[in-house]
Amino acid sequence: MKLIQSATELQKLLDIDRAEGKTIGFVPTMGALHQGHISLVRLAQKSCDVVVVSIYVNPLQFGPEEDFEKYPRTLNQDQELLEANGVQYLFAPTVEEIYPNGTEITQRAGVVGSTFEGASRPGHFDGMLTVVNRLMEIVQPNAVVFGEKDAQQVFIVKKLIGARFRDCEFIEGPTLREESGLALSSRNRFLRQEERSDAESIYHHLSQMKTQLEAGAAVSEVIAEHTKAIETAAKAKLEYLAVIDPQLFRPVDDKHRGPAKIIVAAKVGEVRLIDNLNVKAING
């Protein structure tokens, strides 16, 4: 595996691979890698001949009160993990390499980008789209892989890929979970031992909601019940708990028919966690 910091160098190497008829798969990350990321690498390997993984903690998608400085940076461990799993290129650029003309927003997420995660983290999705667009321009992959745990990110990035990189296949990887159900996340390492059970209980509430909704319970009643339960029993500070239409990423009401997605963001102690669960059908 080659560790590369220069966009120009990476592009030259990928041009050689393309000239040999190889397809390029791309997995963009912010590092602090775990088995959830490796599952995305596996999907890229199934789809393409060569895999590029990027590690870049993007300052544009962190707000002034967020954890940009504290976000875990574990490049040496990440490099070993990727090499052990057959990745050809690790792209770990500097800020100057990604933003040679300065850190300005070039992409806008629109109305959807101002709801849920966007409401909790203003400007987050504009910054995220800006770096994804830049990375896609550098790598020019045949396929790009994102994890479904970041549901709103997936929804927004999929639209960017469809509009600007139409020859690229968008692959969505399923969420990997611990045995307890807690979704794998780079931030889980910050949970104190006494906070883990509270974090784990959030997934159990999502599972109960899924069961209730698929059995015909009213959306409004299910949300109200579990909002109270998560904030009391789980001792979590909820930012949002909603049931949305996955085609529109908008909240549904009690009249909704068909597939849906439960989404949640909550802070357990000082750790902010997000998760989601698909619902096969409501009132189906």
TrEMBL record:
GO molecular function per UniProt: ATP binding; pantoate-beta-alanine ligase activity
Keyword ATP-binding (UniProt): yes
The enzyme's E.C. designation: 6.3.2.1
Pathway membership, UniProt: Cofactor biosynthesis; (R)-pantothenate biosynthesis; (R)-pantothenate from (R)-pantoate and beta-alanine: step 1/1
Catalyzed reactions: (R)-pantoate + beta-alanine + ATP = (R)-pantothenate + AMP + diphosphate + H(+)
GO biological process assignments: pantothenate biosynthetic process
Annotated CDD domains: PanC
Keywords: ATP-binding, Ligase, Nucleotide-binding, Pantothenate biosynthesis
InterPro entries, A to Z: Pantoate_ligase, Pantoate_ligase_C, Rossmann-like_a/b/a_fold
Cellular-component GO terms for this entry: cytosol
UniProt similarity note: Belongs to the pantothenate synthetase family.
UniProt-recorded name of the protein: pantoate--beta-alanine ligase (AMP-forming)
